[in-house]
Design goal:
The structure is a homodimer. Chain A is built from ten helices and three strands; from the N terminus they run αβααββααααααα. By secondary structure, chain A is mostly helical. The first copy, chain A, has a three-stranded antiparallel sheet. In chain A, helix 1 crosses helix 3, helix 1 packs across helix 7 and helix 2 packs across helix 3. At the A-B interface, helix 3, helix 4 and helix 7 of A face helix 3, helix 4 and helix 7 of B. The structure holds a DNA duplex.
DNA sequence: ATCTTATAAATTGCGCGCAATTCCAGAGGA
DNA sequence: TCCTCTGGAATTGCGCGCAATTTATAAGAT
């Protein structure tokens, strides 16, 4: 009876669902680094027990998205400059390989998916919905990982993209030029032509630009209400 | 046999210590895939509470080293052929990048560490302590990740090496030639000469050989549990 | 003997609630 | 106004122990 797998009812969500919802909130920058994640509040939001929420928070902390401080609770990870650079550096290392694999083995359907993603991102950007555009921009990189057909790389990229989001919201340049708009499209062109080497170096530059656009002078921001972020059934 | 650096002998080990000890046991192949990890037994061994052990098992499962089956407990992950290939494939992708970085940026002290590792492995192998040799062989790859100076890549490689150990103990060819002995030494030579490209392709071949040495025909199963083979009792 | 069925033991999942710690507001003092 | 102290509220850490489920064991049937 309590089985309702695909339903949109507000039945208690599974552990994985909660994890993904929180990750989504992180990549959408609806929760900023340093935000305290009150356990009971989250339990109330997702209608689960403390124990279950604890597991989710543990998983988030294992993946570097949340920092657990003894007796103080869970906080959205706010990386220092070193860690931020390590995240970007890891992406350069991993994504070069991913791009190479995609350039060598991608099919027409894969290109179509990438194309659609780029279209959606442009659409959002032109409509001024920048946050949505950023989200699609991140999904582009996850798409590349998916196209390799390797679920391990896929999970890894989801993690790295999420951490990148946190880093960006911490250190992004307020006068953000975000000038690397066309990179995804250019990359897709190279992939279509199976030009692995140019695609790889473009990805490298792409991430270099992202890193260069950051200014490692932290700014403070803490005000966040969890209940307004996760819009669920009220009262 | 210092299990813990400068610590009280039998003081309750921390979460991370337990995690690493179990991972060590996995890479040493002292625990085989499919083995059931009895929670209370582990609590007794490590002198910790069930709750703490639960966290360790959760972390192991998040990292793909252990499978948690509801109401049945924790089992050392036994990958199927697909997952095994995904692990090796992920390693090819990641380690190519790592090797490139090392070739470009490694110093003399780094080369010394690699050299010592190779020496230790050879020593063990010639002394017939093959298990120890295998362990050092895995550590070589982790060393490479450490030399990049990127802790994220380092953790990732620890995880991938551990999963590889599980895969190897599942699918290794009984007539194991393990013929790729000299690869590490040759790789080091390339790294010393800053020859990134040859080093990368050698690493690729190295992992290809490892994969080819595996036999994915369901042999005498180490899976202690028949139910995981014949999918009965689901739902 | 082998396969079922029944019963007991073992094990896991998890809510409850307390102790320890931290957070916070408000009083008092400089 | 700005610290410092302080007592109570809020929050986290975690042991305890029961209920649900599975596993092991023994008895019975064919």
């Amino acid at each position: 009876m309590p089985r309702r797998p695909a339903g949109k009812t507000d039945s208690p969500p599974s552990q994985g669902d909660i994890y993904e919802q929180i990750v989504d909130a992180l990549v959408d920058q609806r929760i900023l680094p340093g935000t305290r994640l009150n356990e009971l509040a989250l339990c109330g939001v997702f209608k689960v027990s403390r124990r279950e929420m604890e597991k989710v928070l543990l998983r988030l902390s294992f993946n570097g998205l949340v920092t657990l401080i003894p007796n103080r609770g869970a906080f959205v990870a706010s990386s220092d400059a070193n860690e931020a650079r390590a995240i970007l550096s890891a992406r350069k290392t991993v994504e070069a390989g991913i791009v190479e694999a995609v350039a060598l083995r991608a099919s027409g359907a894969d290109f179509k998916r990438l194309e659609q993603n780029i279209a959606r991102e442009d659409e959002c950007r032109h409509a001024g919905r920048i946050r949505e555009a950023i989200k699609h921009s991140g999904e582009f990189h996850i798409l590349l990982a998916e196209i390799t057909g390797n679920p391990i790389l896929c999970d890894l990229m989801k993690q790295l993209v999420a951490r990148t989001s946190l880093v960006v919201s911490l250190y992004e340049n307020p006068n953000g030029l975000s000038c690397w708009h066309g990179d995804h499209a250019t990359l897709l062109k190279h992939l279509r032509a199976h030009k692995a080497r140019p695609a790889m170096s473009l990805m490298q530059r792409h991430l270099d630009h992202l890193e260069e656009s950051l200014v490692f002078t932290p700014q403070a921001d803490t005000s966040t209400d969890l209940r307004t972020i996760f819009r669920r059934g009220e009262r």
